[in-house]
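Review this fold:
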Amino acid sequence: MADLTAEGADHIAAKPTRHAGQSGFAALLPLAALLAFGLILLVFALSSAQFLRPGNLFQVIAQSSILAVLALGLTVVVIGGGENTLSGGIDLSLAANLGMGAAIYAVLAQAGQPDLLAIPAAILAGLALGAFNAFAIVVLGMLPLLATLGSMTLAVGIEQVVSRNTTILVATPLRRFLGGHDPLFGLPILAWALLLTSLIFALIVHYSRFGLNLQAVGGNPAAARAAGLNTRAWTAGSYLVSGFCGGLGALFSVGFLGASSTGSAEYLLPVIAATFLGTVFSRRLSPTIGGTLLAALFLGVLANGFQLLNISSYWVAGIQGVLMLAVVATTSLRRPL
């Protein structure tokens, strides 16, 4: 399989030229987004003395870990499949994948099976759903939106059959480890797990041949094929990565909640919001691992700040919708006039 240099990938994935004023405004968006993030942090800090305490900030990271790891998977899919909402990369099954994997892990743990079996089972379940998505999209030629909608329904059905639509409590070494705190600083293990996972994904997606090829395939499939890349294989690979993130998210969820969850579908909108909101932290208004992590943490900060101020968490969902509309509007700047 052919590989591309960084310069070649940038050339293939290059977008149409924009008007100078349009480009200048788009270039200012990452700075504006960071300033807005900082302003919200300042407001919450002035409103609650507990907000800026290191323990609370790391708890925000831990609470955001499930959302963030799912959003990282969707980010890889969007990078590899393009950002067209109908024909481009999308994976609506991620949240259901999490619920399915968590149910499989919890049932095995409840049956007395060790983590050495239950953990790979959850990850393999996620990979299997990712492979199903890849087959439906790459081999059968289904639209990603419809294919992953179908696999989402399939995963929900499997979860309900496996768990009998009940919450299953677990008390395993994995739960105690991920739900605990590090002995040196006393900070949540899940926070460290998320930061480490994000670092690994950033290195792979943005600084490896895999990532460069994936960006080339998503940016301009025709040019990537002309350069010798097997675009179908790279697209399929992105869905396998997404499936892996679904399985990993299941383990994070069990570690955080101490149980399987029958309400995992509620993560779908936040996952999509975090992925596309993360584009405003990029100079090219493109999905990046760092941008997705910042967006997930931003949503986590909102939820935490509202909780500290005794504001209903339902407002967070409304704000997510407004932010998604804003991102759709701003990313239209990338289109040629």
